[in-house]
Design brief:
Diaminopimelate Epimerase, Chain A, domain 1; 6-stranded mixed beta sheet; alpha/beta
Length: 320
């Protein structure tokens, strides 16, 4: 464990914690567990999230102070969790970068080591795994609330313990969290089996746009009009790309979500044959070999064309 990060915690008193925009289970679980742990050490911890917590993670126990605007104040260090680049924090990232030394804690291959201290391990299953190790080195006793957060972080970022990043260490951490009081069936139910009906109305519309190219690339779209018709928003489409990935023979699954008519969010999943992180990195994004994302400027059609050129430079045609 990085001794500089440990020393900053031991010698400091007040800390700001943050993570990336559109936070997932690993991001929220890690930052919440870490904030709670700092509290048990007698430290002051403020969590800044640009976006509100997605409905599927509202069950997670939250620390005392969570804010949605960059707070004023003096901090001994700023911990940025699960972010490959500082700009992924969202609005205010430039201010955050100038406030105090930054400790960058992450597990993405594409991390650009933006911190004063970089605790980056691409071999870790999740950022939650790195936080677990840090808490052990600080001799923090994991209570039931921390355990739920850490379990959720590892469980969701390994795709329910079924992705390639599911390591022996990931299983061991989950075992420890269960011993600390986590009920796996309850967490799984809250994350995967507690969706509003509107999510499935949206999914129906999205699947109607599904197209395959050369039988190995599958792509679908989410538009603002779909959100309006179904009474949903962007968080309702979280995980849709996983359905596309399940198609037999498909090597790369892509979901294009409209931000506005000239900006689109890309979620990409692979099955090992293609490094989708490298593809997304070419558009200023990043992630893991089999799970990555980016943003692309241009119309929906232009975004689709750019993705297809990146995935199949030799060219491919739409099936059927």
């Amino acid at each position: 464990m990085n001794t500089r990060a440990k020393r900053l915690i031991e010698e400091g008193r007040s800390f700001l914690l943050t993570t990336h925009i559109d936070p997932d289970g690993d991001a929220i679980g890690s930052v919440f567990a870490f904030a709670m742990a700092l509290g048990t050490l007698g430290k002051e911890a403020t969590v800044y999230l640009r976006d509100r917590i997605p409905y599927r993670y509202e069950f997670l126990p939250a620390p005392a102070r969570v804010v949605h605007a960059v707070p004023e104040g003096k901090y001994d260090a700023i911990f940025v969790l699960d972010c490959g680049s500082l700009f992924r924090v969202g609005s205010g990232h430039d201010r955050i970068g100038a406030m105090a030394p930054i400790v960058n804690i992450d597990h993405h291959d594409t991390n650009d080591h933006f911190g004063t201290v970089n605790l980056v391990d691409p071999g870790a299953s999740s950022t939650g795994e790195i936080i677990y190790r840090l808490l052990k080195s600080l001799k923090v006793k994991v209570d039931p609330d921390m355990a739920v957060n850490l379990y959720t972080a590892v469980f969701t970022d390994t795709g329910s313990l079924r992705y390639d990043n599911t390591s022996l260490e990931a299983f061991k951490i989950c075992e420890e969290m269960v011993k600390a009081g986590v009920r796996p069936s309850w967490v799984a139910g809250m994350v995967y089996e507690s969706h509003p009906k509107e999510r499935f109305l949206l999914l129906g519309e999205v699947l109607c746009t599904l197209a395959t190219y050369g039988e190995r690339i599958a792509m679908a779209r989410v538009t603002s009009e779909m959100f309006e018709r179904t009474g949903t928003n962007r968080e309702f489409s979280d995980g849709f790309v996983e359905f596309i990935k399940e198609i037999r023979g498909v090597e790369v699954a892509v979901l294009i979500r409209e931000i506005d008519k000239q900006h689109h969010k890309i979620s990409m999943r692979g099955k090992g044959a293609v490094d989708v992180a490298a593809v997304c990195n070419g558009f200023g994004g990043g992630g893991h070999r089999n799970a990555a994302g980016c943003r692309i400027e241009g119309t929906m059609e232009e975004a689709e064309e750019k993705i297809l050129r990146a995935l199949a430079p030799e060219g491919c045609t739409k099936d059927g």
